[in-house]
From TrEMBL:
<dbReference type="InterPro" id="IPR046959">
    <property type="entry name" value="PRK1-6/SRF4-like"/>
</dbReference>
<feature type="transmembrane region" description="Helical">
    <location>
        <begin position="250"/>
        <end position="274"/>
    </location>
</feature>
<keyword id="KW-0677">Repeat</keyword>
<keyword id="KW-0675">Receptor</keyword>
<dbReference type="InterPro" id="IPR032675">
    <property type="entry name" value="LRR_dom_sf"/>
</dbReference>
<keyword id="KW-0732">Signal</keyword>
<dbReference type="Pfam" id="PF00069">
    <property type="entry name" value="Pkinase"/>
</dbReference>
<dbReference type="InterPro" id="IPR001611">
    <property type="entry name" value="Leu-rich_rpt"/>
</dbReference>
<dbReference type="GO" id="GO:0005524">
    <property type="term" value="F:ATP binding"/>
</dbReference>
<keyword id="KW-0808">Transferase</keyword>
<dbReference type="GO" id="GO:0004672">
    <property type="term" value="F:protein kinase activity"/>
</dbReference>
<feature type="region of interest" description="Disordered">
    <location>
        <begin position="222"/>
        <end position="244"/>
    </location>
</feature>
<keyword id="KW-0418">Kinase</keyword>
<keyword id="KW-0433">Leucine-rich repeat</keyword>
<keyword id="KW-0812">Transmembrane</keyword>
<feature type="signal peptide">
    <location>
        <begin position="1"/>
        <end position="26"/>
    </location>
</feature>
<keyword id="KW-0472">Membrane</keyword>
């Protein structure tokens, strides 16, 4: 009897364990997976990527069970036909991560693959043996490496979109006659475009913005190889004596040039050393960017470079070259940790801002180009627009649109006295909302950056003045440089104010570092005090005053009299204090910050 009872117990236990295993795999007992290899490849894709979206776009929550039931798709972004997966469309779902090289190789009936508009990194999958594929889009991601040669073996390929990535290497010789859409623009591809009837049939826009790419249909011809040294008709090399005689004048010229160069370098080095080490001490990371107004004849002191400016902007009259920039009158308007900033007036009348970058001498050219091209694509009403950039061994320049209204730092702190016009609460709240919108957009566009802005402070929030004296429109500047700075230089930026709660400093380098900096800006906007100035910590001072019931000590004197808005001020203070939590896990994400700040004063806005 005991043996029989034990046997029954073992069977029941085994059945329960089997049920748990099935549940853990994402299958219900009623599910029937007709093609397990296909499902396994899809799950491998799911597990390689992560998404900021909630259900159903979150693949880990949605891609469970069987992907298809007859012709019905059970998974988000999947299209099925006869229980087979024939299309995957996960475009614009904020996916990040990287793909295995052999991704989806068992999804044999796949005809469409669209992963565009995400933040996926690493090499492209080779898509080997997916002979039914017709449309492939990996556009607007962060894929790197070369275009896989296996793509040449996709016989039915009609659409291939790889634009706006970081792809390098040459373009394979695609010869699929079905190819109707082809785009590899905005990458780092190089070499000659294959001269075949298929690729030559596409417009220049399909290949544009690849700086090292050449040949038709681009207007940039490929440089021919240098001619080989010719052998005299008699087949003998020229005699040593005649050769040395012919070279003697050139040797003399080269020696003279070398001597002049050495002397010039010595003089330049002395002047540079004298200028660099006799200037005043550096400011703290959160000081105003030492707003200087110093007249200069031009930017000609910058060593001449052979590279042309790479243009991004559609700003009216934004057509100029490096020589135009060097000849134009320039005015030094600021010095900061990233470099010196000049206001330049071009001959056309267009006013621009040129930042001469420092502390990135070790940056490789391709890395600098990739980062600048990425920042140059950003477009938002609350972000300062990059017009162009220039790279040489001596100098790295970034050219911005000119924002004429000064900075938030100046708006808050300049001319504190009887003659000052107070900055009212409504204007401060609108500025805070504009900053939140710009920063949220930046985080959405650069989710793969550790810290998308990294230098957010009031002196880097530029102001556009509207028709009304109280109509202020903020634009974020000096953003996105963290990836091209050395680890020792990163902490001289505003994120150097972020508390480090781990021995590993990299623990602080997340999107939440920007959130902390935004919280400091909010506290500055509300209190009128500069973070890092004075003996008392601003965050601690505000917390101690907020804890006292009814205290308005933390409010700037210019807004304390606006009692009808005190409730809104308290909401913004609470949000700011959430943003400056020491533990980054307790700080909100920027999209949540934006939702909360947009709700502040919304009822009052509707009544106006």
């Amino acid at each position: 009897m005991n043996r029989r009872s034990n046997s029954v117990s073992i069977l029941v236990t085994a059945a329960l364990m089997l049920k748990l295993i099935v549940s853990a795999s994402g299958l219900n007992s009623t599910d029937q997976v007709l093609y397990p290899d296909e499902r396994d490849d899809l799950l491998q894709l799911r597990d390689s990527l992560s998404s900021f979206f909630s259900y159903p776009a979150n693949l880990y929550l949605n891609w469970t069970g069987s992907p298809c039931s007859n012709n019905q798709s059970l998974w988000f972004g999947i299209t099925c036909s006869k229980s087979r997966v024939v299309a995957i469309d996960l475009s614009g779902t904020q996916l990040s991560g990287s793909l295995p090289s052999a991704a989806l190789q068992n999804v044999w009936h796949l005809t469409t693959l669209n992963l565009s508009g995400n933040a996926i990194q690493g090499p492209l999958p080779n898509l080997k043996d997916l002979i039914h594929l017709r449309a492939v889009s990996f556009a607007r991601n962060q894929f790197s490496g070369s275009i896989p040669l296996e793509f040449l073996a996709l016989p039915n390929l009609s659409n291939l979109e790889l634009q706006d990535n970081n792809l390098s290497g040459s373009i394979p010789p695609f010869e699929q006659q079905a190819l109707r859409v082809f785009n590899v623009s905005h990458n780092s591809l190089e070499g000659r475009i294959p001269n075949n009837s298929v690729l030559q049939g596409f417009p220049t826009t399909s290949f544009a913005h690849n700086l090292e790419l050449c040949g038709r249909p681009l207007a940039k011809p490929c440089s021919s190889a240098p001619p080989r040294s010719q052998v005299p008709p008699n087949g003998r090399p020229p005699s040593t004596s005649s050769s040395s005689k012919a070279l003697r004048p050139w040797i003399i010229v080269l020696v003279v040039i070398a001597v002049v160069a050495v002397v010039s370098i010595g003089i330049f080095g002395f002047l540079y050393y004298f200028k660099r080490y006799t200037k005043k001490p550096k400011q703290s990371a959160y000081d105003s960017e030492s707003v200087v107004t110093k007249k200069a004849k031009s930017l000609e002191s910058i060593p001449e470079a052979k590279e042309n400016l790479l243009m991004f902007s559609n700003i009216e009259k934004a057509t100029f070259d490096f020589d135009d920039l060097m000849r134009a009158p320039a005015e030094l308007i600021g010095k900061g940790e990233l470099g010196s900033t000049f206001r330049v007036t071009l001959q056309s009348g267009l006013v621009i801002v040129v930042k001469r970058l420092h502390n990135i001498q070790g940056m490789r050219k391709d890395e600098f180009f990739r980062q600048m091209e990425l920042l140059g694509k950003l477009r938002h009403e609350n972000l300062v627009e990059i017009i162009s950039f220039q790279y040489s061994k001596e100098e790295k320049l970034v050219v911005y649109e000119h924002v004429s209204g000064g900075s938030l730092f100046q708006l808050l702190h300049d001319n504190r006295g009887k003659a000052r016009i107070p900055l009212k609460w409504a204007a401060r709240l609108n500025i805070a909302k504009g900053i939140a919108r710009g920063l949220t957009h930046l985080h959405q566009c650069l989710p793969f950056h550790e810290v998308p802005h990294a230098n957010l402070k009031s002196s880097n929030v530029l102001i556009v003045h509207g028709n009304d004296n109280e109509d202020y429109h903020p634009k974020l500047g000096d953003l996105g440089f963290q990836p091209i700075l050395s680890s020792s230089e990163i902490y001289k930026l505003a994120i150097g104010m972020v508390p480090v709660v781990s021995q590993d400093k990299k623990y602080a380098l997340t999107h939440k570092a920007d959130v902390f900096c935004f919280g400091l800006v909010l506290l500055e906007v509300i209190s009128g005090r500069v973070p890092g100035e004075g003996e008392e910590d601003l965050v601690g001072w505000v917390r101690s005053n907020v804890s006292e019931d009814g205290s308005t000590e933390f409010l700037d004197l210019e807004i304390v009299a606006e009692k009808e808005s005190h409730a809104d001020m308290m909401q913004l203070i609470e949000l700011a204090l959430d943003c400056v939590e020491v533990d980054p896990q307790r700080r909100p994400m920027m999209n949540d910050v934006l939702k909360r700040i947009e709700e502040i004063g919304a009822l009052n806005d509707g009544k106006r």
